[in-house]
Amino acid sequence: MLPQVGLDTATVLERLGHTVDYPAAQTCCGQPAFNSGYSNDARPVAEHFVQVFRSSETIVCPSGSCAAMVRSFYPELLANSLLRDDALEVGRRVFELSEFLVKVAKVTDVGATFPYRVAVHDSCHALRELHLKQESRELLRRVRGLTLVDLPYGEDCCGFGGTFAIKFPMISAAMGDAKAGSAEACGAEYVTATDPSCLMHIDGILRLRNSKVRAINLASILAQTGASAGAVSGSAR
């Protein structure tokens, strides 16, 4: 849905000297079906993921929810699969983007420029499953021109929750509206997160409110340089 986020992730990694490979055979990690209770449908998708990535040295994901699915839930989903051991090994090499940059590559300054006021929404899977919170902020503090502002109730769920938004639209919309209101109240020009799905939901709410605040993925901020910062790409628009 937001291919620019993947492209911006590659831009950041290549700028830092990493060799990026995009296996063309990859598909979904299986999380949508798994979260909805369709384990039998999610299992072959997860097995395919393992087969595609089992020879990869490091797997970087610009989505905390996808990374959490592989690392935290594949052991359960593939407990009786012939690929269980491969799944465990692949899970050890999967990292959310900010996690990889700060904890693995040991980098906080990626050479980015983004002269705007930015608030951070803590995506549920990144925060609660991967225990990531400060990593994105460490990276943003080193972005030239960026002013990091505190988002009230930043750890609260945005309300998307995958199929939750479809099954319980009124609750989902109310939660999204509260999150959008917090972004407006803190004076942010952009709200960012590590999950495109959260940002897609938040940005949709912001647009319905005719808000001036926009949503943008962390990878897309980090991809901006002095030459490109004026023409923002990768926002959930």
Poorly predicted regions: none
Major sheet characteristics: 4 strands, parallel
Strand arrangement in the largest pleated sheet? 4-3-5-6
Rg, please?
17 Å
* CATH topology descriptor of the largest domain: Rossmann fold
Mean pLDDT: 93
Shape descriptor: globular
How do the helices and strands follow one another from N- to C-terminus?
HHHEHHEHEHHEHHEHEH
How many domain units?
2
**Structural class per helix/strand content?**
alpha/beta
CATH class type of the largest domain: Alpha Beta
Strand content: 5-15%
Residues in helix, %? 40-55%
Number of strands: 6
Quaternary state, please? single chain
Architecture overview:
It is built from twelve helices and six strands. The protein has 237 residues and is α/β, with parallel strands linked by helices. 49% of the residues lie in helices and 9% in strands. The strands form two sheets. It has a four-stranded parallel β-sheet, sandwiched between helices. Strands 1-2 form a two-stranded parallel ribbon. The chain folds into two domains: 3-102, no CATH class; 117-222, Rossmann fold, CATH 3.40.50.
